[in-house]
UniProtKB/TrEMBL annotation:
Protein's UniProt keywords contain Hydrolase: yes
GO annotation terms (biological process): DNA repair
A GO CC term assigned to this protein in UniProt: cytosol
Keywords attached to this entry: Hydrolase
Protein name: HAD-superfamily hydrolase, subfamily IA, variant 1
Any coiled-coil regions, as ranges: none
InterPro entries with a match to the protein in the record: HAD-like_hydrolase_sf, HAD-like_sf, HAD-SF_hydro_IA, HAD_sf, PGP-like_dom2
GO molecular function: phosphoglycolate phosphatase activity
Gene3D superfamilies linked to this entry: HAD superfamily/HAD-like, Putative phosphatase, domain 2
């Protein structure tokens, strides 16, 4: 019998891209350069997986001082400049088995979609550095700047489904390394919303979002797809 799944939507940093939390370390630095004293653990807990201005808002909401949009814009601009420079010099690699999984999905006629809380320019920079090619290594990139509402809203997944004429979230798996990825998948009605332990958040933080599964390696997705028959 044919398997039910037609599309897997993957988060990028921490899920399919290995960058040692570079984005959140840079975000942490930019926030603290604006006069705050916040640890990386807190930034990972509050900001992981979110569109990056949304992540800054979430972190600053824990502070006694009221953060206005001008301050958030200032922090974001500093973050964006530093991240662009960091991505130019730091090593960025695929997560273990990402390429093998993408190839296996292609053979199974399952679409590989990348989605991310990054804007399109940043995401494309990462993809170019990895030498991943749209239509060859993966099927489409959907970014935070492509939709009106970001995670946990399902807009990015729904846009991917629309592009490939998939009418039911029950044909889709979402995989990500943060609780908000799991919430996004659930809100899109995905068959499975899966947490992976290779990125920003701990097993306990992932479990709080009640995922359908938590995996330690991307290749575990193949058995989950086969289970959907």
């Amino acid at each position: 019998m044919e398997h039910q799944i037609k599309m897997v939507v993957f988060d990028m940093a921490g899920t399919t891209v290995s960058e040692n939390n570079l984005v959140y370390k840079t975000l942490n630095k930019a926030i603290n350069e604006a006069g705050f004293n916040i640890g990386l653990t807190e930034v990972l807990a509050l900001g992981a997986g979110k569109e990056k201005k949304q992540a800054i808002r979430a972190v600053l909401a824990t502070q006694a001082s009221v953060a206005d949009e001008a301050l958030i814009d200032q922090i974001y601009d500093n973050f964006f400049t530093q991240l662009t420079n960091a991505y130019a010099v730091e090593e960025i690699l695929p997560q273990p088995h990402a390429a093998e999984l993408f190839a296996a999905l292609k053979k199974m006629d399952v679409l590989t979609i990348l989605n991310t809380g990054y804007d399109r320019v940043t995401a494309q920079t990462i993809i170019d550095k990895l030498n991943w090619r749209t239509g060859i290594d993966f099927d489409a990139l959907i970014t935070a700047s492509d939709v009106a509402q970001n995670r946990p809203y399902p807009d990015m997944i729904q846009l991917a489904m629309k592009q490939f004429n998939i009418l039911n979230g029950n044909r889709v798996i979402k995989v990500g390394d943060s609780a908000i990825d799991i919430e996004e998948g659930k809100n899109a009605g995905c068959y499975y919303s899966i947490g992976i332990t290779t990125g920003a958040q701990t097993v306990e933080q992932l479990q709080a979002a009640k995922p359908d599964a938590i995996i330690d390696d991307l290749m575990e997705i193949l058995s989950l797809i086969n289970r959907s028959k």
